[in-house]
Amino acid sequence: MGFRRITIFAFVLGLLFCGVPSKAQGNAGSIEGTVKDPSESSVANATVEISYPVSGYTRTVATGADGSFRFSNVPFNTYHLVVTASGFAPFTEDIDVRSNVPITVQIGLKIGTAATSVTVEANGGDLVENESTFHTDVDRGLFDKLPLESASSSFSSLVTLVSPGAAADSNGLLHGLGDHAENSYSVDGQPFTDQFSKVFSNQLPTDAIQSMEVISGAPPAEFGDKTSLVVKVTTRSGLGVTRPTGTLTASYGSFGTANLGLDLAYGGQNWGNFVALNGLKSGRFLDPPEFTVLHDKGNLENVFDRFDYNLSQVDSIHLNFQYSRSWFQTPNTFDNLNVLDADGNNVGDTDQRSKIGTFNIAPTWTRLISSSAVFTLGAFVRRDHYNYYPSNNPFADLGPINSETISQDRNLTNAGIRSDISYVKGIHNIKAGVTFQHTFLNENDRFGIIDPNVLPSTTDDAGVPCFDPISNTATPGTPCAVLLPIDLTRAGNIFTFRGHTDIKELALYVQDTITKGRWSFNLGLRGDLYRGLEPRSEAEPRLGIAYNIKPTNTVLRVSYARTMETPFNENLIVATTGCNVDVIAALIPCIPANSPVGFRNEFHAGFQQAFGRYLVVDAEYLWKYTHNAYDFSILGNTPITFPIVWNNSKIPGFALRASVPDFHGFTALVVMSSVAARYFPPQVGGLGVTVGQSGSVFRIDHDEKFNSTTHLQYQPWKRGPWLGFNWRYDSGLVAGAVPDFATALTFDGDQQAAIGLFCAGPGGQRIMASLTSPLTNDPASCGPSPTGTGATRVKIPADGTENDDHNPPRIAPRHLFDVSVGDDDLFHGDRYKWSLRFTVINLTNKEALYNFLSTFSGTHFVSPRSETVELGFHF
């Protein structure tokens, strides 16, 4: 059956379901019921509470006059339900919410001791989940007090801190379990598989997030494409909020960072609207290549709106809308200041800038088919429009790693339709669905050579110089002849590349979670039909088994997944067709390929263990093998990157999470991981030939031996002040640009100073490289046989010991500490409250690097110490 016929069949199937006579949405379910006394009379004003101690989730409602209650927009999890009423004994029950099929409970209270409030604590059995998929649940109650490093990419900063296996990189980029940006997001059921880093797209504001589930294990069948980490987000809703409720916040801090935000929820029993507005400006918008901030201003405006409406008892609609705009400068190095042209004239500072506009709209309709089945039909359109602007004087873009000036106007539009049906009956929890996505790519790039030494240093295929600087002529048929027309130093003109393509992808899946006694089986099958620059179809089985040893509160699990790995869409056209363009092929090394689609086999084994009600530990071992493994290369000192693909990759490692649920106001979350990222040449496609061309296996720059985050939070009184503390340790990503000290001596003074290069001088005194005094082999510097060599911010292997696989150079280990203190009710108000918080990031002002001269992301420093004060008004 052809791709078009399959697409039509899937769409017609969705329409047929629509004719069948879901209150819940996307990644959330609902709990409803009625509370009655022993005589079957309704109990009004009873207090009903649900909680999941591990994530910090808790909600409370009062029953109506008819004894009914309802919790909507409940993230998937197991909840401890407690019902209390005056004159009755408390009632407890565990409720498992695993689909958007509404759960109905009938509660009969027994006559007991009169009480208006009773605390019924969870036990160890409530802390473990009989699930085969390793994941981390986090609710707003925890991350609302979590100190976040980046105001401009707070969403990805949040994911990095709370999920095991996420290696921190610059500009909001995170490496999920050894992969470069192979992460996907599901926001109320809408799939996002394109890049979320702040140099690609504008992120979802954290003010809009109610809770998150980060899947680090084998992904269920409903998730495809980029699945190293799958982040399921449930947004906040105004459904049932009968009185306008919200928060107005204003903050100001280091680097002139100012933030103004408003969130507002309002609705009724059958409708609700939630809106989050946010405006940010900062003098340190991106992570710069210097610890000192140079040319790094930026601003961001965000609008998010969620609307819910129950059309009837069986039909409901849900609409998500977001628009975001960001503008930011490309940070400079000291080498980018007072740039000199070929004649020695000062052409000014480098002044490159970017602008991103992001638009998203996603309507969803659900229908309750029966008490056991829910049908969902949704559509979505998302568009990222990225502009990159060069300096007004193109020659000011010249730098140590920049020989061209470039501008870009690129947009990515992803439109699609999704439909699924959930059925819960007995031991089965079945979900079957289809998703069709159509992605439109448009790329407009403009190149020009601004370094007069590019052509004289260029050779032909035989290695013979192909340009004569004396006659200012190029040999016909050589790369120089191709590049001479775009050499602006020799009266050339800007070259323009334009590309357009569209990518269609259809996914069909079915999965069933079977719970039988202490056993849980997750069975799934996914089929992906990808029609991009290279077509591919893939059948992807998914399997998971979990066993609950109830006497010891232990869950054992194993899982397997086959996944299809699709290319990155950002700059995909120029990266795959650039080799066919003479100018690009001569300017940027490339390997001709048509963006081959990859596939992966991954295996997981782990356990979950609760120690009473005080501690739960979750650990996982993983092993992933990928054929056609994707990564990025970077163009000079710009945010512009190109997808590249390697022959194979092997990624083994472990991840662990330990949680301490609320204990007298104290909570703790510890996540840690060790993940190797071993890549196998050759590079089989992409623009920008990078490391690893020797033919031997190498560790790519998102390989990290160990990282961990410890978050501690303490609030001794519910209406009193609180304290939040982070300790982040990173052992350091691979830094392949510094294989030995001799190579480091070839760097300029700015680059040597960035890594803290040093050697031993007379009397053993340490000599540090500086911007104006780089280290050399000169006797006045380090000498021809330097001793006591090294770098403070990069671990350089000893001479003769460097090995790309077993002993690669790395960024030096770092310990970073963040702290936040605050009070959410300064004046002990009831209806209206004032809050105040003070946050310090990088408390010790540690000078450390994320990366250095990385072919995938460049050089970036972590944030210096920064302080922020926030005042909030809650109503």
What does the model show?
The structure is a single chain. The chain has eight helices and 50 strands. The protein is mainly beta and 875 residues long. The longest helix has 16 residues, at 3-18. Residues 5-22 and 114-118 have low confidence and may be disordered. The chain has a 22-stranded antiparallel β-barrel.
Which labels suit this protein?
875 residues; mainly beta; 22-stranded antiparallel beta barrel; five-stranded mixed β-sheet
Judged by helices, strands and strand pairing, the structural class is mainly beta
Radius of gyration based on Cα positions: 29 Å
The quaternary structure here is single chain
Measure the end-to-end span: 57 Å
Kindly state the number of beta strands: 50
- Average predicted local confidence, pLDDT: 90
Number of helices: 8
Strand content: over 45%
- Shape designation: globular
Helix content: under 10%
Point out poorly predicted stretches: 5-22, 114-118
Largest sheet: 22 strands, antiparallel, barrel
Task: Report a brief summary of the structure.
This protein has 875 residues and is mostly beta strands.
Strand and helix layout:
Blueprint: H1 3-18, E1 28-36, E2 47-52, E3 57-62, E4 68-75, E5 77-84, E6 91-97, E7 103-108, E8 135-139, H2 140-143, H3 154-162, E9 166-168, E10 174-176, E11 183-187, E12 190-192, E13 209-215, E14 229-235, E15 245-253, E16 257-267, E17 271-282, E18 298-310, E19 315-329, E20 339-340, E21 346-348, E22 353-370, E23 373-389, E24 404-425, E25 428-449, E26 467-468, E27 473-474, H4 479-483, E28 495-516, E29 519-531, E30 535-549, E31 554-565, H5 572-577, H6 582-587, E32 590-591, E33 598-611, E34 615-634, E35 641-663, E36 666-675, E37 678-687, E38 698-699, E39 704-714, E40 721-730, H7 741-744, H8 749-755, E41 757-760, E42 766-768, E43 787-791, E44 794-795, E45 810-811, E46 814-823, E47 833-841, E48 849-854, E49 858-861, E50 866-874
